[in-house]
Every structure is written in C-alpha cells, then in structure tokens.
Amino acid sequence: MSDPTPTSSDLIEFDKKHLWHPYTSMTNPSPMYVVESADGVRIRLDDGRELIDGMASWWSVIHGYNHPALNAAIENQLKKMAHVMFGGLTHQPAVDLGRKLVEITPPGLEKVFYADSGSVAVEVAIKMAVQYWLSQGESQKTKLVSLRNGYHGDTFGAMAVTDPDNGMHHLFKHTLAEHLFTVSPGCDFASQDYLTEDVEAVEALFFEHHQDIAALILEPIVQGAGGMKFYSPAFLKRIRALCDHWNILLIADEIATGFGRTGELFACTHAGITPDILTLGKAITGGYMSFAAALCTEKVAIGISEGEAGVLMHGPTFMANPMACAVSLASIDLLLGKDWKADIQHIKTCLESGLASAKVLPQVADVRVLGAIGVIELKQPVDMQKTQAMLVDEGVWVRPFGKLLYVMPPYVMNNDDLNTLTTAMVKVASQQ
Fold this sequence. Notes:
Blueprint (H helix, E strand, L loop, with lengths): L7 H11 L16 E5 L2 E4 L4 E4 L2 H4 L8 H13 L11 H13 L4 E7 L2 H18 L7 E5 L8 H5 L19 E3 L13 H14 L3 E6 L3 E2 L5 E2 L2 H13 L3 E5 L23 E4 L11 E6 H8 L16 H15 L3 H16 L8 E7 L2 E6 L5 H10 L2 E2 L6 E4 L7 H16 L2
Parallel strand pairs: 3-15, 5-6, 5-7, 7-10, 10-11
Antiparallel strand pairs: 1-2, 2-3, 4-12, 8-9, 11-12, 13-14, 14-16
C-alpha cells in the first residue's frame, strides 16, 4: 500500500523540525502556511483560503502563476532536453535569449554570461571587474565601492558589498572581503537633481582610493531589501560620469528592478546610462526558475579575455540551462508583446490612490510609489510574525520587514485585487 497523503499538520511538523527557511531560527521557527497551488495572482493554501499575492514571490512572478505560455515553453523544451552542459556545447534557447538580452538592455552591453541566481550573477560581476583590471596590469584595483542601504545578495562576495549594518557584517568580519561604502542618496525620485553633498562624498572617496577601486556597484534608482528607497536619476547619471572620470567600472544590479518594475524596462534607462556590467535575475524567468545573467561591454570582455587567465574564471554546472533560457525568452516576449508601460502605470495609479490614506496615520513615516512598487514606511519596526498573520486574515500575502509594509504585485493584477491589497495594507498599518 502507498503511504497515506500527509495532512497539513504532518507537513508543518516535519517542516518545523527539519526545513530551514530564509532568515529563520531552527530553535524558534516562524509559523508557516502550507501552499496547495497557485494560479494567476492567487496563492491557494491547503485549508482552502486564497491569498492575493502582493509580493510576486519576491518580485519575480510578473505574469502571475501557472501562465499557459510559460508552462508551454518549459514543457516544449523538456521534450527536447532538460539540461546539457554549456562547456563546449551551445543550444538555441541560450542563443535566442542572448540575442534578446543584447537587444533590449542598455546599448553597449554586448556580452552575456548566464548564472544560477541573482547572488551568483553579482559574484560573476565582481569577478569581471577584478579580472578586467588585472588584465590591464592594475592588480591593486580589487576594492568595490557600494552604497549604504544597498543589498546585492547573500553569498560571500555579494554580502561583502551589501550594507555592512543591514548585512550583519560583524558576524562574518574575519571571512568577508573588506570594501568601501559611501552614502545612500538622499534625493528622492521626483527630484530633478542630486544632493551636492552626496556626490561630493562619492568624489572624495574616489579621489582618495581610485587607484585601488575596481568598480562601484549599486541598485539603480531603487534600493530594494535595504529599505525600498527611491532616488533621483540625476544621482545615477552623475555617478556614471564620476566612474568614467576616475577610471572605475560601474556595476548596475538590476536583479530587482529589471523587466519593467520601475516603469522603464531597466532602471538605468531613467538616467539614460549604460553600466559596464549589468546583473539580471528574479523576473527574468517570470518567476519559474532560479536563473540570472551578467552582461558586460565589449571593453570589459576583451580586457578579461586578453589578460593573464585568458578566460573569465567562472562556470556553473547549470549555466544556460535550456529550460530556464526557454522560459526566460517566453517571459520577455510575453512582456514586450503587450503595452507593459500602460500596465505598470495603471498599477502605479492604483497603488497611489489606494495607499494615500495611510499618509495621515500617526504610525506612518512615509508612503511612496514608483512603477509597480508601493511602500508604507512605519515609524517603528513591525512584529513580522504578528503583522504577517494580520495580512493573511485580510486575504493578502504581503511579507513585511523592518519598518516596511510594501508590495511588488504581478503586472496582471486587476483593479479589485489591487484595491483589496492596498486596503489591507492601510488597515494593518493603522493597527501597528
């Protein structure tokens, strides 16, 4: 006889004892909700409740769950091959996706390196920068500069360029590489200019350390997990100019912002700049698989290839996985095949109107919206477990952190669901 189907309590009990979730304790594990299925913008729990997903599964499921076009892309590719090594071999999904990425990303990004995840793409970008300068005979240029409140991933290289306070560097101080940190820009997105003191701080750091700096890494326009801060394109444009002046590469981490989230296909477009290296992830597959890419200019690629090693020193086992490439191409085609800018603008309008009433709440420090991102910033940190449960009771899946209640919904969410989402956020904010 086959084993009986486990009950919800069976799953929860095993999960509690054996499965480690993101940023959780094994001695005091967080409460978990068992998901039975997901479709469109809804997550269906095994007790029958449905939750409107305001997180797009950490900002990746831009077309909603269980999309027939994305399902078909994976199913069709699976019939041919699920995987084949990329060493010495290539395949059409990798070529077609590479052609598409070169076409749609900021001009000048001509070379594509496929990676396993966003954090790994950042690791690759850092390697690109360091190897480039090594090949130029400047082996001392090994330091990275990062913005305060920045977040770039949880692997060691990515963590080393994440905010040293938010990233808990002191726990790993004897293992992490030591890099340089500068200001988090104080100019908001609507500003037509940067703050002079912010730019002066960056320039002073470059003046003192430029001979040792390989690259500056930043999240363009939106600092995500470091606080959901939106800053002016003028600051980004000025940083590009400073990097050029001081002979420093610019890495733009668009893992969270890429593929339309901010109202432009890529956030760098707000400032009209091209970075030397660009990282992509999250929404690249429409949230179907872990996959990422790092793109660079011909200058960087040739510099690395003509250096001592002659190759970029990285090669993941599942690099250019055919199913991931196929579903990524289908996701991009699905996005570009509709008026995605109008969709993002519509979500923006709904978020602005729906969250507006939170501005007068005494508990609220700020309410801000950019593209398909809506944020209520509270004056005090939330109790995440308690607040999460309150939101579930309202029928929505929103995962708060720090002082923030925020959403990055799928682009296909309709007016009624957006209204339910924002109403729940305001109600829960009022109860903090």
